[in-house]
């Protein structure tokens, strides 16, 4: 895994310390999201994937309830 020593370990802290970078995030949110995700360790990635899966299941239930 690549590590960038110029940024702090937490990408959100980096944005708070350098607010000028927020425009770069707005211009290309996918790259920021992938860089953030790739910076996580395996356990944190599992938590993110579990939360995404639970959200998709909840959204599917919500859509199913609206069809009645």
Describe this structure in words.
This protein is mostly helical. The termini are far apart. It has one domain (11-66). The chain is 71% helix and 0% strand. The protein contains four helices and no strands. The chain is elongated and about 50 Å long. It has helices at residues 11-17, 22-27, 29-38, 42-66.
How do the helices and strands line up, and which of them pair or pack?
Elements lengths: L10 H7 L4 H6 L1 H10 L3 H25 L2
Keywords: Membrane, Transmembrane, Transmembrane helix
Q: What is shown here, in short?
A:
Keywords: Membrane, Transmembrane, Transmembrane helix. Helix content is 71%, strand content 0%.
| Tally of discrete structural domains | 1
H/E topology pattern:
HHHH
Q: Give the CA-based shape.
A: elongated
* Number of separate strands: 0
Number of helices: 4
Percent strand: under 5%
Strand count, sense and closure of the main sheet? none
Keywords: Membrane, Transmembrane, Transmembrane helix
Features:
single chain, mainly alpha, membrane
